[in-house]
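Progress narrative, work stream C.
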Amino acid sequence: MFIEMVRSKIHQARVTAADLNYEGSIGIDTDLLQQAGMLPYEKVLIADIENGNRIETYIIPAAAGSREIQLNGAAARLVQVGDRVIIMAFAYVPSPVPANWQPRVLIMDDNNQIKQTLGDIITVTS
């Protein structure tokens, strides 16, 4: 049996832009992706701290160093620029889950700079 576990999380990132006319997805600074261990085109779940909306989409890479967090397409209707969001990536893990399982967590400041990093980048092997 496999259990879906949170593998990586960017916590309290600020939405920097929202574009209703883009085809969809979330643009994330590639430096943040690397630090979080997330991948371009990976499926993610986004929770908006300000309004409780939950959005499922995929990542597109944004310019390194831009600190961009941009929601696009239909998701742009569910957020406001300046909202804090939690971006979560998951992995299917064989059960029983290792006792030391801890996701990689980036805790962000108001300018999308990393304030604190918890956990290691998790690699799951089959």
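Work stream C, second folded protein:
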Amino acid sequence: MREPTTEDVDALVGPATPHFAPQLRARVEELVSDLPEGHPVRQYAQTQIEVLKRLAFASSKAEEGPREPRSRPGWSQIPSTASANDPLPGRK
């Protein structure tokens, strides 16, 4: 098998949703598991793995723009309003 690239990592992480983030995290970890610790692709994968960890407890990957105010009409009907940069706490 050829050596993984950052594009390979992006192909896995790009379409991630909260529901599938844990499975995709495992695939990214497996993809780079044979690379040495200091390898640039492995380091890049680690940053993306952190995004996937946060996304698992979020409802969006949105990283730009302001958060919606909780006073917005209909807000109370949204089951999860956390973004990947500010996820909900994990279950214990």
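The mean pLDDT is 82. No further action is required on this item.
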